[in-house]
Amino acid sequence: MLNQLTSYLNSNQTPGQAGNMLWVLIYILVVFGGVSLFVMVMNWVERKALAHFQIRLGPMRVGPHGLLQPIADALKLFTKEDVMPEGADKAIFWSAPVWVVLTGFTTLIVVPFGMTHAVTDMNIGILYMLGISSLGVLGIIMAGWSSNSHYPLLGSLRSSAQMVSYEVAMGLAIVSAIVMTSFTGLGMYGAGTTPGVGTLSMIEIVKAQQAQHVWFVFKFFPLGFMAFGIFAVAMVAETNRAPFDLPEAESELVAGFHTEYSGLRWSLFMLAEYAGMVAVSSIATTLWLGGWLRPFPNLLPGSTWDLAFSFVPGLTILFVAAVTIRQALKMPQHPALRANKIGMLGLGLFIAFLGLVLFIPGVRVRVGDIFWFCLKVGFFIYLYIWYRATFPRYRFDQLMKVGWKVLLPLALGVLIVTGVVGLTPELTAWVKGLFA
Amino acid sequence: MTTNRVNTDDWGDRGTTVLDANELVLNMGPQHPSTHGVLRVILKLDGEKINGTECVIGYLHRGVEKIGENRTYTQFAPYTDRMDYVAAVSNGMGYCEAVEKLLNVEAPPRAQYIRVIMAELQRIASHQVWLGTHALDIGAMTPLFYTFRDREEILKIFEKYCGARLTTHAFRIGGCQYETYEGFEKEVLKFCDFVEPKIGEYEALLTTNRIWVERTKGIGILNGADCKALGVTGPVLRASGVKWDLRKAQPYEAYAKFDFEIPVGDHGDTYDRYLVRIREMYQSLRIIRQAVEGLPEGPIMAKVPKIIKPPVGEIYHSIEAPKGELGYFLVSDGSTQPYRTRIRPPSFVNLQALDKMVRGMLMADVVAVIGTLDIVLGEVDR
Questions:
Q1: What Rg, from alpha-carbon coordinates, does chain B have?
Q2: Are B122 and B287 in contact (CB under 8 A)?
Q3: Which of A251, A402, A405 to mutate to test the interface with B (most CBs of B within 10 A)?
Q4: Is the minimum CB–CB distance between B362 and chain A shorter than 8 Å?
Q5: Nearest CA in chain B to A259
Q6: pLDDT tens, per residue, chain A with 436 residues
Q7: Burial of B215 by CB count in 10 Å (0-12 exposed, 13-18 middle, 19+ buried)?
Q8: Of the residues A248, A399, A436, B35, which has the fewest C-beta atoms closer than 10 A?
Q9: Which residue does chain A place closest to B363, by CA atoms?
């Protein structure tokens, strides 16, 4: 067992690949627990950021700056009465949220948080993710159907149509990224010489970007960027978030497919939604933003810069700690705020401690990957919140129009042009051969 | 099963859809986030398509008209504030003027100017509430908070002037009870300068927003003839290209003295109604600025007897409230209480157009159209 524990630390494979079941278990716990924790943090950040977009303060009462609000919410949801509508199809009604959460979380096992930091690596990783995440819609249909109510039914109908439509454009955008793994050179920043690999494995895709010295978002500029853009739009629709949040359109369908759900079951839907956001964001990060790779691999290459960048995680965490401590010190002197102040100071110091831990060479090397990956995913999550604050909601038919008439042809075009551009050397050789 | 179901027996057979299925009957409201209160709309749906609607109103009925017949003329004035509670000043103004006409008195010029300033401020506030909630219905959350932030400044002015923010009861029969407070003019002008760029801010979020334009252009079209047939008034009528504004058509108070324009739309769709209301806010600012500049000195109350006993007769007086023509019909039998009070609320009449506007459109458009009609259920049900 000890052997298993240590052997992984020296290997350069994911535990699943190496067949190291102990670490697989550890990783499953860490990933699922971590994502659940991340969802809680996301919940707080979303409410805070959205509030600040809308000139409000957001949660301020439960804990300092409302930091304990997600916990309070979770407690409330756990203790709520479990209501099941009289006419509901009980078995399906019961299993729908379980199904949604199951699919939402299972996708995460192939997400590469670092070169070795994934539960496992599959040679069809991206296909697996797409497949499992599109199974989630089944849970939504189950929820809408079994509620035996009109609003959920309409919501789930919308949802299924929407997910099916957007998966096509999304899939084509992904294909153009996968195609890029098999082409060398012609990137925006210099041309790599490594031969293409042509892979569906999440880890190999990032490795291909590393070898070609270009993130795919910049490759064959603007083709990579366009595919990325298409995916970035489709993924919002895929996760039912604003401005494509029709299935749960609050102002039309009350709450859409989960109108009849409450308490724990409802919170499972929320959990799945946020896990889905993390999943698609990590696909986007992996495919186009270089996964766990640090930024500026071309402009600032070399081991010196590698070393410099390896200090960034620690410094960032320290910065967060400094902000926290400053906010704590800025709190007014009042007996009622004393507990809050101490709590916030304690939190700040804890974060600072974490930041310092990240400077330890052994930790620094292994954690840099995870940090960059999470930062990129966080960027997408922030975009999600930003969209929600800015955009009105599309109408159902308009949404379909955007999906089928705009995104799909565009994605198809990008894919074809990507193929042509990638095969330029071969094509020119072939044309020359014709006239020779 | 003992589930409560909507009784749809009394409104005809359910039609069939293209796939030979029964129409889906959806009960929207009275507790629905975007029916602006307690409106209940029964929708007949073919998938998402609307085949017919039926409005059920009366959930907020308080018998305001009947109350009016059992109170003295003075006592009834505060009740009018509770009808269109987002535009209380305009309601009160219309009522006071109707009684004044019955009494054959006229408010002194200063009072008239104060009334105009307050009513136009109220128009801006009302349009802000409309814009925020309308945008929220269509899915844009943020404008709501922007508009309510700026409306706050108007409410502050109201509070300083008459002590109340929402149900103001700002005016009295014969003029105004309160003289303007110290620095009123300066504050109102400051507000005008403050809010003008803010309206631009709302526009920046919406006017050219692709999704907003797609959601509102060509939605709920109502042409001028339909409007006239249905008795629709206010910005909804003007967006359909009919230049009819009581402030110009039958000038009351001091409106004849001000220079302003009536914004008119071309297509009569939701987007035009949005533009008309936005432009109306700018015009209101124009009126307020002129009124503050020309605010005459003098008394604020006309000579009105302590006990109001109008001569026998009847009167219909209407004003241009933010939502349309607000009319008061009063019949006096010579006593201290009106024999009959009848109110013509703009929201109630405008709501009639809902069915015509949404037939054949999609479910999401119902929400947009209810929003664009700018109804307040307090006024619809009275």
A1: 21
A2: no
A3: A251
A4: yes
A5: B32
A6: 677 677 766 667 777 777 777 878 888 888 888 888 888 888 899 999 989 988 888 888 888 888 888 889 888 888 888 888 887 888 888 888 899 888 888 888 888 888 778 888 888 888 888 888 888 888 888 888 888 888 888 888 888 888 888 888 888 998 888 888 877 655 444 445 556 667 888 888 888 887 777 788 877 778 888 889 999 988 888 888 878 887 666 666 767 788 888 888 888 888 888 888 888 898 899 888 888 888 877 677 777 887 888 888 888 889 999 998 888 888 888 888 888 888 888 999 999 998 888 888 877 877 888 888 888 998 999 998 998 888 888 888 888 888 889 899 999 999 998 888 877 777 788 888 888 7
A7: buried
A8: A436
A9: A252
Do the Cβ atoms of B362 and A397 come within 8 Å?
Answer: yes
Contacts of B215 in chain A (CB under 8 A): 392-395, 398
Residue pair A152/A252 in contact (Cβ under 8 Å)? The answer is: no
Mark yes or no for CB contact B141/A389 under 8 Å: yes
In angstroms, rounded to a whole number, what is the distance separating the alpha carbons of residues B295 and B114? 8
Maximum separation of any 2 CA atoms in chain A, in Å: 90
Partner residue facing A54 (CB), from B34, B141, B365: B141
Q: In this complex, which of B137, B205, B364 lies closest to A396 when CB atoms are compared?
A: B364
Give the pair of three-digit tokens for residue A351.
């974060």
Contacts of A55 in chain B (CB under 8 A): 145-146, 149
